[in-house]
Amino acid sequence: MTAYDPAKDGAQMSFASDMSYADYLSLDPILGAQNMRSDAHDEMLFIIQHQTSELWMRLALHELSTARTHLIAGDFPPAFKMLARVSRIFEQLNNAWDVLRTMTPSEYTAFREDLGASSGFQSHQYRLIEYILGNRNTAMMKVHEHRPELHRMLGQELRTKSLYHVALDNLAQALGMSFDPSICRMDGPHQADDTVMQAWTRVYRDPNTYWTLYELAEKLVDLEDYFRRWRFNHVTTVERIIGFKRGTGGTSGVKYLRRMLEVELFPELWNMRGQL
User: Fold this and answer.
1) 237-251 residues labelled b (16+ CB within 10 A) or e (exposed)
2) Is residue 2 situated within a structural domain?
3) Does this model's pTM top 0.90?
4) Distance CA 94, CA 226 (A)
5) 8 domain residue, yes or no
């Protein structure tokens, strides 16, 4: 069989003066960013796992921020698509734990000391995702004080209504009601409120009348569902690899991560299900 020659099909083969695939994607700095600090074979896996997770989180932030803008404008269809995409992004993040779990405790120990005090706990993008979704723990801001630009970014998010509170604005407007302003805390995690739960219950009891709100609610539940799975897989992976050792960033490791499993982003959407 004659070897295939793409040039005969019209494919461009010379890029001396044109933008190539690698140019467009800036692959040189991306593929050159795996700076290992040890000779351990598995450090490459550890670095790429976390770098790709940060890239997926970068996309999640892009989608969540724009979805919030659409919800503020009452433009629901594109917001729904973006929220559905974020759910799939967290599915990708979930699948990535399966790759990291191929690393054994012995293999991780070979380079763990080279991490110093660095930890995923310090990811500003993860913190920003939490803040956008409504889990606004201001104590976490201190971790980012050494990077003023990141600290400002997080502070700006804390001065902006969360995605869920924007959803609640749409809920109140559609039902012709209002919620106590204290519900929309800007400086702390969202707390479950019975008035909000009753409003969502009203939507679920008559989905045909409130179909747009019903769909919005289910998109939010989907998102939190995938987010919870990501957190659970994180705990399982950490326990499998380091047991109950303290985290490199000084947290209690698995014990800290298990506490995070108790956090509810949209509590009323889960609590109201028992009333239907």
Assistant:
1) bbebbbeeeebbbee
2) no
3) yes
4) 8
5) no
Q: Is residue 46 part of a domain?
A: yes
Q: Please tell me the total number of residues recorded for the chain in this structure.
A: 276
Is residue 85 within a helix (H) or strand (E), and if so which, with residue range?
Answer: helix 76-100
Structure tokens belonging to residue 147: 């990077």
**Phi/psi of residue 195, nearest 5 degrees:** -65, -40
CATH number, domain at 69? 1.20.58.480
3-state DSSP of 87-114: HHHHHHHHHHHHHHCCCCHHHHHCCHHH
Domain hosting 83: range is 38-275
The domain tally of the chain equals 1
DSSP per-residue letters across 165-220: HHHHHHHHHHHT----GGGS-SSS-----HHHHHHHHHHHHSTTTTHHHHHHHHHH
| Tokens encoding 22 | 């690698």
pLDDT tens digits, 131-159 = 999 999 898 889 899 999 999 999 999 99
Q: Kindly indicate the confidence band of residue 117, based on its pLDDT and cuts at 50, 70 and 90.
A: confident
Residue 222: both structure tokens together: 């989907």
13 inside domain = no
pLDDT of residue 87: 97
